[in-house]
Amino acid sequence: SKLPKLNELLDVSIKPALEQTLAEEEAEVAAYPDGLPIGGPLDISSEFGIRRNPFGGYSYETHEGTDFVGPYGTAIFATADGVVERADYHGGYGNTVTLKHGYGYETLYAHMSKLAVETGARVKRGDVVGYLGNTGRSSGPHLHYGIYYKGQAVNPRNHMKMNHDMNVVDYWRLR
């Protein structure tokens, strides 16, 4: 019968290849920034794109992220698995964490009151990386959240999904 030989072929060559492909796809999904970096009641104070300079004057600037307003000290979460590339005070961004996720993705969390991770640490989606604050060039307590793909800023709204802390009204308001 050819069945035992086919079964052996499956076990020896095809099954390991399928398992490897599945593991690679799972790693890529885990590296994709998805969801909100902050839980609880929240609002957006500044969108991604061209905006009027919030520090006075009539000039415009490119805003490479989304600003979330919330209570001071609110926990900030990693939106994908990755490695902490930077966790320190970084000029106008204040207390900042940058995560490198692989597959071309990086995320940036800025203006935090306190950092909860150190450079080089591995994080999983949902891990606390810091706490909402008002450090650096900031007009009030908020989180500046940026996503970069292959070095280019992308709109974080395209990566938001409803999470367990949101009600349906907030989800549709933020979409």
Task: Describe the 3D structure.
The chain is α+β, with helices and mostly antiparallel strands and 175 residues long. The chain has two helices and 13 strands. It has helices spanning 3-31, 168-174; strands at 43-46, 49-52, 60-63, 66-69, 75-77, 82-89, 95-102, 105-112, 114-115, 122-123, 128-131, 143-149, 152-154. Strands 1, 4, 6, 7, 8, 10, 12 and 13 form an eight-stranded antiparallel β-sheet that branches. The chain starts with a helix and ends with a helix.
Keywords:
M23 family metallopeptidase, 8-stranded antiparallel β-sheet, alpha+beta, Glucose Permease (Domain IIA), elongated, 3-stranded antiparallel β-sheet, 21% helix, 175 residues, M23ase_b-sheet_dom, 2 helices, Cell_wall_metabolism_enzyme, metalloendopeptidase activity, Dup_hybrid_motif
| Measured distance between first and last alpha carbons | 58 Å
The counted number of beta strands is: 13
Order of helices and strands: HEEEEEEEEEEEEEH
Helix-and-strand structural type = alpha+beta
Number of domains: 1
- How many DSSP H or I helices? 2
Shape: elongated
Question: Might you state the CATH topology name?
Answer: Glucose Permease (Domain IIA)
CATH architecture: Distorted Sandwich
Radius of gyration: 20 Å
CATH superfamily: Glucose Permease (Domain IIA)
Report the sheet with the most strands, covering strand number, pairing sense and barrel closure.
8 strands, antiparallel
Average of per-residue pLDDT values: 85
Q: Percent of residues in beta strands?
A: 25-35%
